[in-house]
Design a protein that fits this description.
This protein is of the alpha+beta class. Helices cover 50% and strands 14% of the residues. Bound molecules: flavin-adenine dinucleotide.
């Protein structure tokens, strides 16, 4: 949709498209298109190196930290075009989560040590917030960090940790003062995943894949200089990070790509004599989801333009999260319906649709569940 972009933005989009067509390796493109994550770590890191070599490694970072200094609109264009081109995702945990926290609250030594390695893709980060019983109610987390001289000794368990099996580092919320009110006794620490005492146990998801893990900490020793900011002030940094996470969760580019895939699959079936879009009920549902996606894109642009004016991401981010994930799930439902029983057999497009449908149930849970986002919308936007 060109409506909201300036001629300079449109020229930038052309540049991004040309770059993607020249520089995105075809084997990566094909694997992402097939939903094949058998080379996940290698593919993500290889793509990060290509972007970094081009000066585009961290689309959201300011120039002073090695980013391209893009406007919010340029970042949106870049991410959308990458998704449409089937580029590997740039994982948010380093680039969009811990990095903004380090830029704002980290020490100069932490910034110098960690930011360049996030940019180049050398360090893979994961997020250690949730625990069994502490997901929506995150402030109840129990993983304990006891101070012993110049170290913290960490004991406890994190749950639902995405891609931690590949990670070099994990940023964790830990309880440093159990005597204080829940939110006040938490600290934000950076832990080397090679530390003795860390065990990573994979959790199998509905589609049979291993994207998430339990991570156990058994007397893990972490130098105090790996704490970000002040002791017991971690909740402030955690909230700052979550605001960034939610803003980027609308996934407009991914939904546009999947809508395109849905229409292509419908056309392929049509060519074989059964045109699903001739069914007015199915065609109406496809049209409705496309309209909703256009409306989401406009809302997303409103939020990123506000961010570009240096306002912190507000509760509008919750609307993006709820709407973005509902739309993506609806598209995956339509893809599954379109394929019907073929999803149970060997047909690759149909199996991909079935696996994606099962996998994407996660969208309404992670990043703050959709019920929790609705509570935020009700309280802060609707005044209920
Ligand atoms: C695939 C996946 C990947 C994840 N990756 C990570 C990761 O990398 N790092 C990380 O730290 N965490 C991660 N998470 C954890 C995620 O943030 C939590 O699952 C989420 O916050 C929900 O917490 P919970 O699972 O404990 O469910 P609960 O909080 O127990 O919620 C259960 C149900 O109750 C509802 N509910 C809870 N409280 C309320 C309320 N007050 N009002 C209305 N409804 C409510 C919820 O919406 C949900 O439907 C991931 C989760 C998934 C599924």
């Amino acid at each position: 949709m060109d409506l909201n972009f300036t001629p300079a933005d449109l020229a930038f989009r052309k540049e991004v498209r040309e770059f993607l067509s020249a520089s995105l390796p075809s084997d990566l493109r094909e694997r992402v298109g097939r939903g094949d994550d058998s080379h996940f770590r290698d593919d993500v890191q290889r793509w990060q190196r290509i972007l970094h070599d081009h000066g585009w490694g961290a689309p959201s970072w300011p120039r002073e930290h090695g980013g391209p200094g893009w406007s919010a609109a340029q970042q949106f264009i870049f991410e959308t075009e990458c998704a449409l081109a089937d580029a590997p995702m740039q994982l948010p945990f380093g680039l969009k989560m811990v990095a903004p926290v380090l830029m704002r609250y980290g020490s100069p030594a932490q910034r110098e040590r960690f930011l360049p390695r996030i940019l180049s893709g050398e360090d893979w980060w994961c997020q250690g917030y949730s625990e069994p019983g502490s997901g929506s109610d995150l402030a109840s987390l129990k993983t304990r960090a006891r101070r012993e001289g110049g170290e913290y000794v960490i004991n406890g368990q994190k749950a639902w940790n995405t891609r931690g099996q590949h990670a070099d580092w994990i940023f964790c919320l830990v309880r440093t003062d159990p005597g204080r009110k829940a939110q006040q006794g938490i600290s934000f620490v950076l832990v080397d995943m090679r530390s003795p005492g860390i065990t990573v146990r994979p959790t199998r998801l509905l589609d049979g894949t291993f994207e998430v893990n339990e991570i156990w900490f058994d007397n893990v020793r972490v130098p105090v200089e790996n704490r970000v900011g002040e002791e017991n002030e971690g909740w402030t940094y955690a909230k700052y990070l979550l605001g960034h996470e939610r803003t980027n969760i609308a996934g407009v580019g991914g939904s546009r790509r999947e809508l395109r895939r849905l229409k292509a699959a419908a056309a392929a079936l049509g060519a074989r004599g059964r045109d699903p879009l001739a069914d007015p009920v199915f065609a109406t549902r496809v049209a409705q989801v496309e309209i909703d996606l256009l409306a989401l894109e406009v809302t997303n642009l409103r939020v990123i333009f506000a961010e570009g004016r240096k306002q912190a991401p507000g509760p509008e981010a919750s609307i993006l999260k709820v709407r973005g994930t509902e739309i993506r799930q609806r598209i995956s439902e339509l893809q599954l319906e379109l394929q019907g029983a073929r999803g149970l057999g060997g047909d690759s497009e149909a199996s991909r649709a079935a696996a994606a449908y099962l996998n994407l149930r996660k969208l309404s849970i992670f990043g703050g569940s959709n019920e929790i986002q609705r509570n935020i919308i009700a309280r802060t936007l609707l005044g209920l």
